[in-house]
Please model this.
Amino acid sequence: MNYNLIYLKFYTILFLSFSFLTFSQETFNYKSRQTYSTEQNQPIDIVFKSKQAKPFDVEFRAVFNFENKESISVPGFYNGNDEFVIRFNPEKIGKYTFQVNSDQKDLNGLSGQVISKAQSSLTKLPKIQIDSKNPQKFAYQNDKPYFALAFELDWLFALDYPQNNILTQSKQIIESIKSNGFNQVVMNVYAYNVGWPVAKDVPAQYDYKKPNYSVFKGTNESPDFTELNIDFFKNLDRKIQLLHENGLASHLMIYVWNKKVNWPKMYSKEDNQYFDYIIKRYQAYPNIIWDVSKEALDYGRCDIPYINERIERIRKNDAYKHLITVHDYEYCSREPEKVDFISIQNWRSDLYSNTIDAVQKYPNKPIMNIEHGGYEKGPYATFVGNYTNPEICLERNYQCVFAGVYSTYYWQNTSWDIVIYDALQLNTIPKPSFDYYKHLNTLFTKYNFNELKAYKPKLTINSRIGTDNFSTSGYPLTNDKGLYLYFVPKENDFINTVIPKPESNQVKVTYFNIFTGETKEEIETYQLFKTYTSPWKGQVFVLIVESV
Model:
């Protein structure tokens, strides 16, 4: 018997149990005029009891007044067992008073107050918004930059279902994501099955296709659209909260058309009930980003007027005004003013050129490449895209970032219905290259991405100095204040920089290895047409040149 392996598994579970001490927001049963206490940016549930024949039809919201200065009207939702919940997130420190407004007499007029204290945990982050200083970049509500680095995990909803108090699977994959620099999870509310061939030897514990439940009552094959599956949403709450506690955004795709979900008819009462319920139930989480639908205009399921109407529904019901996008450039390119940031799905070989064109086309909106065709290979065959080599997938992410946009990573055995949630703990399969992305995050933690701009170079290099010609090759970013970063492809034997002369006549040069995070630094005298060669021969690298 391998006792070392047994001890390793025991201590892994023990570590996970103690490294995620809680995974749900505090819940309080309503008592008349009671004061509830929580922390800033931590949602609480205030639970009201009322027996109703048609509970999903009940109109129910609370108006919160912050120290008699400003107010916010938060919609409530039905939570089963005669429970109606107001989920409230205090975005400020201080006292909120509230009053319930409802079309039901026993709920209407109820009141109380919430005291919000300073956060005890630095990992719970405030809402993500557009940077007030740079409309093409993200920032948190406290104005700190948010360098979005996303990880696709469509089937997160299915892990630890039915209800599992330990959330063992979810914790393992989220810890792997967080520890490797990712800070956003792209996920479906619900999905059923993929439409492409999948390996038949996938171990049962990693195979999540065809769940025997739905977001609606019944199953996906025989749903009762008139009622929602409350147990499903209670479990999803815990995933969103777990992400929040670990400083990860939930990029929540409300619909998906190509995962064989049995949806109600567009615009029907049942469709509206489902959609509005998502907004009411999850808006209080600071880490939410709304995405109406994955590949929205593909597959013939909906059209532009429908997506427009769904966005209007979000803006009407979301008291917290979270960011909205649509996983579909066909939509975003036609209706750019409807979304808060542009989502692009681009597999092209000339990814950088196409991306920088988009940056110039939308100067007042952030852009995210939601899929660049790079899906790193895993041990079990599934959808492959056009690029599966882990190094090439990483390079495509760098091409996105150095064009001035945010990017998303896919591993074939976590992105869809196969979820190897403990891949980094296994010695029986090749480990995915999550660690590459820790170095990408580190690079743009040191160098503020929100202050950096990408420039489309001239067709000629004859004019040596100019804001559109910082080098003979490679992909430059600059802050226009003496800092230049270049992504240099492995095809380059060397790169020549053409930057203005600093006052000191000296520059600090740093070579950054994107695969290991290794750096090499030196101070040297400025030279106009300076040649730089990678210390890692034949490898792509990042060159940083800054005035000293």
